Amino acid sequence: MRGDSILHPTPAGLYCPPGGFYVDPMTPVDRALITHGHGDHARAGHGSVLATRETLDIMAIRYGADFAGATQAAEGPVRIGAVTVRFHPAGHILGSAQIEIIPDRGPTIVISGDYCRTPNPVCAAWEPVPCEIFVTEATFGLPVFHHPDPMTEVGRLLSSMAEFPERPHVIGAYALGKAQRLIALARQAGHDAPIAIHGALEKLCAYHVQQGVPLGSLIPATADSVPAQLMIAPPGSFESPWIQRFRDPVIGFASGWMQIRARARQRGVELPLMISDHVDWPQLTQTITELSPSEVWITHGAEEGLLRWCELTGVSARPLRLVGYEDDPE
User: Fold this and answer.
1) Could you say which DSSP state residue 37 is in?
2) Which SUPFAM superfamilies match (predicted)?
3) Single pTM value for the model
4) Which H or E run contains 83?
């Protein structure tokens, strides 16, 4: 059986005919397998959802307890139709997973979802999963993208706070994953003072703490006078009246996209922090080299750049050209 008989793109997303399920579908379907809880991968309204326990919890927090008709936590191998699936850590955010599809006949396929090989204190580390077909993201699929050590970037944040102690530092970070990672990295770097968080982060931060992720003292960034120099907020809050309560703030943004100076200028960012939850170009090509799959399928991101690299290195590759996935919140 050919790979595209086991998995192929449709308008709703990647579909597995022998299993009768979709992976990260973009519209409501009867049966969905979800790689992680970000809104461009995890949507409400499916008949049934199979995901890690943490992803199911996160979807319930974000969409309500009835976000799907039925749910099942992925624990060990799960038999679905004529395939067996296994979930493996992706290192992207809490609960993120790669999905391994093992058909009764044909090649084993691994869908990486969004993945990161740089150690992340808020989630399980990425695991290499041998396969014949590797479906990879290409969010930062161009040679220009080399992400620095996250602790170096957090060091820049703490140095700025020491240099400008009278100025509040308000850092934009995606509400799920990036915000908690930034807080955990700041704690690892020795910042023990309370950190103020926007109300949109409270439930997700509390869930991380429940799961054993140490975030230290967190206080709400709601009062006109917040007794904390460091504040974390979703990027959208910078366009709301909320930001106006802070006098002369240092505006920062934590994202792999901050390597592109034009994006930082566009957002009015004074302190760009290049902290990414995705693989950069060296890690992307390293992963393909180490896994050495028979085929690479490339999705959401700079497909053409990675496709060209595969051609030059003799790796059989094809772009899936899926639409509907965001690359900006990161």
Assistant:
1) S
2) Metallo-hydrolase/oxidoreductase
3) 0.94
4) strand 83-89
d(CA 232, CA 187): 14
Torsion of CA 52, 132, 11, 325, to 10 degrees: 60
β-strand partners of 253? 172, 272
The tens digit of pLDDT for each residue in 165-184 reads 999 999 999 999 999 999 99
Topology (CATH level 3) of domain 3-144+278-319: Metallo-beta-lactamase; Chain A (3.60.15)
Question: Is 205 within 8 Å of 178 (Cβ atoms)?
Answer: no
Q: Which of 128, 189, 127, 198 is nearest to 161 (CA)?
A: 189
CA angle 243, 186, 279 (to 5 degrees): 95
69-97: pLDDT as tens digits? 999 999 999 999 999 999 999 999 999 99
C-alpha 200/C-alpha 213 separation (Å) is: 18
- Helix or strand holding residue 289 (H, E): helix 281-291
Query: What is the spatial distance between Cα 71 and Cα 34, in angstroms, rounded to a whole number?
Result: 11
Using CB atoms within 10 Å of the CB of residue 248, give its burial: 0 to 12 exposed, 13 to 18 middle, 19+ buried.
Answer: exposed
Give me 249's structure tokens: 């703030």
Pick the CATH number of 150-273 from 3.40.50, 2.60.120, 3.90.25, 2.70.50: 3.40.50
